[in-house]
């Protein structure tokens, strides 16, 4: 039995301190791999203008490469993906030979990772946060584009030693596309950061406020909350909607806010902040808002925003389809309604007017600690990665980080 430490490479276009759910998930995975005894290198992008950099994680080597970004600061779009993927091929070919590569979407990144891994005879694990060909199809893209994405994605999935899917629905689709072995590992949240006790933000609204914290994209449909404020502002005087984040729909949200009867005075748009500060904003809110627009190819997703709100002890208002509805209602985490302005306005008004009650908040945070630990999810993926490596007999030294296992029904969108 060999005692050599497995060398693991994470290949991802997004990583901490870039504020996104995938960044938190991958940083937790890197930590779990190090604690298991692996040597970890992260091949990623040069971070955009971001909040204060986070403390480095001992044992994690981060190798960054400059890339093209869209006008909102994301690596999003074919040219942007290629600006990461083409150099990644060379970085994987000419770096120290790893024992396993863990690769993130998009499929183009998986494509170059498979090429490099075939040449170097290295296994790889594909982390399927979503199914890109389904999402492209739902946008009405031309049939040849959909077919091309599906062929690339299928080729990537078929070549993976393991596929890690974040929901059963994603797992079913990866198997249909040819994945040899798919394992479902639900995502979680950092319950040491997102918790009900702690400071609230300076400069928070004087009255009750609802908060949408995270990525704003077309398929998430956060505009439903901004539109609802036309009614909510009348029903709950002094109420404010705080939108904290960035994304492709940011300018559209600003335009919708300006069109409100009060000119947008009831909506506050704030750019991304460090994770601890985002947790403070959630902690002080009367309601945490989460949405998915139906029919965009993400109906199966379970946004990490739900977990962030629950872990902070803040009632969650979810507008949209998918597994989040049942988890929220069955566990008393808040309310789930249709992605409809009137339904959202009614539920948001009720939650903003509800008297403060520490009991439900404590229970919600307790549920998150027990069932949605990001450390437990990361430890499970670390085990899968090492088992798929060229050093499969390496024994993990920390097999149950966080002390719990993730609960069924929890997942995220890739850029939450």
Give me a quick take on this structure.
This protein is α/β, with parallel strands linked by helices and 416 residues long. The chain is built from 14 helices and 13 strands. The protein has helices at 21-36, 78-94, 107-120, 132-138, 143-159, 168-176, 223-235, 250-258, 275-284, 304-311, 324-330, 341-353, 358-371, 374-387; strands spanning 7-11, 39-45, 60-65, 100-103, 124-128, 162-165, 182-184, 209-215, 240-246, 267-270, 287-291, 316-319, 334-337.
Task: Tell me what you see in this structure.
With 416 residues, the protein is an alpha/beta fold. It is built from 14 helices and 13 strands. It has helices at residues 21-36, 78-94, 107-120, 132-138, 143-159, 168-176, 223-235, 250-258, 275-284, 304-311, 324-330, 341-353, 358-371, 374-387, and strands spanning 7-11, 39-45, 60-65, 100-103, 124-128, 162-165, 182-184, 209-215, 240-246, 267-270, 287-291, 316-319, 334-337. The protein has a 7-stranded parallel sheet, with helices on both faces. Helix 6 (168-176) links the parallel strand 6 and strand 7. The model is unreliable at 398-416 (pLDDT under 50).
User: Which blocks of ≥5 consecutive residues have pLDDT under 50?
Assistant: 398-416
Tell me the radius of gyration. Answer: 21 Å
Averaged pLDDT: 89
Percent in strands: 15-25%
Index terms:
6-stranded parallel β-sheet, 416 residues, disordered C terminus, 7-stranded parallel β-sheet, single chain, 16% strand, alpha/beta
């Amino acid at each position: 039995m060999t005692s050599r430490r497995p060398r693991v490479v994470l290949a991802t276009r997004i990583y901490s301190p870039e504020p996104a759910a995938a960044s938190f998930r991958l940083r937790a995975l890197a930590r779990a791999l190090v604690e298991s005894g692996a040597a970890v290198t992260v091949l990623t992008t040069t971070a955009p203008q971001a909040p204060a950099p986070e403390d480095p994680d001992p044992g994690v080597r981060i190798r960054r490469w400059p890339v093209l970004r869209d006008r909102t600061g994301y690596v999003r779009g074919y040219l942007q993906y290629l600006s990461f993927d083409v150099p990644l091929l060379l970085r994987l070919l000419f770096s120290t030979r790893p024992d396993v590569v863990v690769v993130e979407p998009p499929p183009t990144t998986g494509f170059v990772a498979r090429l490099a891994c075939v040449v170097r005879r290295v296994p790889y694990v594909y982390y399927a946060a979503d199914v890109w060909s389904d999402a492209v199809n739902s946008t009405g893209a031309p049939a040849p584009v959909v077919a091309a994405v599906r062929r690339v994605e299928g080729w990537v999935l078929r070549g993976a030693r393991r596929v890690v899917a974040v929901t059963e629905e994603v797992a079913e689709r990866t198997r249909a596309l040819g994945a040899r072995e798919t394992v479902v590992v639900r995502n979680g949240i950092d319950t040491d950061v997102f918790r009900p006790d702690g400071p609230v933000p300076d400069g928070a609204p004087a009255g009750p406020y609802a908060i949408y914290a995270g990525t704003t994209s077309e398929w998430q449909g956060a505009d439903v909350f901004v539109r609802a404020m036309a009614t909510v502002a009348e029903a709950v005087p002094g109420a404010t909607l705080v939108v904290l984040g960035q994304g492709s729909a940011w300018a559209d949200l600003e335009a919708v806010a300006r069109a409100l009867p009060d000119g947008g005075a009831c909506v506050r748009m704030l750019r991304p902040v460090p994770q601890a500060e985002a947790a403070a904003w959630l902690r002080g809110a009367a309601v945490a808002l989460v949405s998915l627009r139906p029919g965009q190819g993400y109906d199966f997703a379970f946004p990490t925003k739900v977990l962030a709100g629950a872990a902070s002890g803040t009632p969650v208002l979810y507008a949209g389809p998918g597994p989040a509805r049942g988890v929220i209602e069955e566990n008393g985490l808040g309310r789930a309604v249709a992605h409809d302005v009137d339904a959202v306005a009614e539920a948001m008004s009720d939650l903003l007017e509800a008297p403060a009650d520490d009991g439900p908040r404590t229970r919600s945070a307790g549920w998150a600690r027990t069932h949605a630990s990001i450390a437990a999810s990361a430890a499970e993926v670390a085990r899968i990665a090492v088992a798929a490596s060229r050093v499969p007999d390496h024994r993990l030294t920390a097999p149950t980080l966080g002390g719990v296992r993730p609960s069924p029904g929890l997942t995220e969108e890739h850029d939450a």
